[in-house]
Design goal:
- The chain is an alpha/beta fold.
- The protein is built from 8 helices and 10 strands.
- The protein has one domain: Rossmann fold (3-Layer(aba) Sandwich).
- It has a 5-stranded mixed barrel.
- Helix 2 packs parallel to helix 6 and helix 3 packs across helix 8.
- The structure holds 1-O-phosphono-alpha-D-ribofuranose (R1P) and uracil (URA).
- Pfam families: PNP_UDP_1.
Length: 257
Amino acid sequence: MAYSEGYEYHIHLKQGDIGRYVFLPGDPGRCEVIAQHFDNPRFVASHREHTTWAGELDGVPVAVTSTGMGGPSTAIAVEELIHVGADTFMRVGTSGAMQPETQPGDVAVINAAIRDEGTGLHYLPVEFPAVAHQDLITGLTEAARDMGKRYHVGVSQSKDSFYGQHSPDSMPVAARLKERWDAWVAGGCLVSEMECATLFLVAATRRVRAGGVMMIMGHHDFQPMTEEEKDASQIGNLIPTAIEGMRRVIAADKARA
Ligand SMILES: O=P(O)(O)O[C@H]1O[C@H](CO)[C@@H](O)[C@H]1O
Ligand SMILES: O=c1cc[nH]c(=O)[nH]1
């Protein structure tokens, strides 16, 4: 569909296409998989890296829009989703392990993010913390606990370079990357991914709610995963926790209303 009047420039949505509650995977291919957990799932739009499906959960309109990888496209998607009426965002993504106590396939509920990215600096000075909204943290934590998932609650490192994480030695700034990675680990940072910090900072700026739940992949020491561990860390295993977490947020909102 070409861009036209009334439609947001990048996500190609208009007022009325979606409701308040939006899941945010990075991967456009994950949108339909998440939407299959909605009642009445329907494709809405796809433009660039932003695919959207809509449906309902417990009678309430929900949607899923992919952010693409990294801060810039995430900020664009969230800004435009706010323009068309969304105010509650849950990132649903994959992440790399950083602590020895996690196992591949564990769930990480993100309560804050290290601002190792550039987009957030276009919103708020670096001293401003990138934190998740308590409603999302509570909903996701209770969902993971009640579903019997192996889960952790903690900080993600949101970075701009995937290969700075996975191949730091190949970078001219290797020493700096490794020194900082060691500091994040020493501070207890749970996982590494690429979008939470930007999402939380845009949300703070626009006064909306955001949180995130991540599938933990791999080992903190980058040892290869076994076939069993690869099976455990499929994104499909994470999605039921995200759906139940959003149901809890919706239920808490209904109880407050
Ligand atoms: O699985 P998604 O949600 O894309 O998230 C992670 O995967 C991508 C890198 O492989 C980055 O977007 C990172 O944050
Ligand atoms: O190791 C990983 C896995 C997913 N996404 C990342 O950014 N890093």
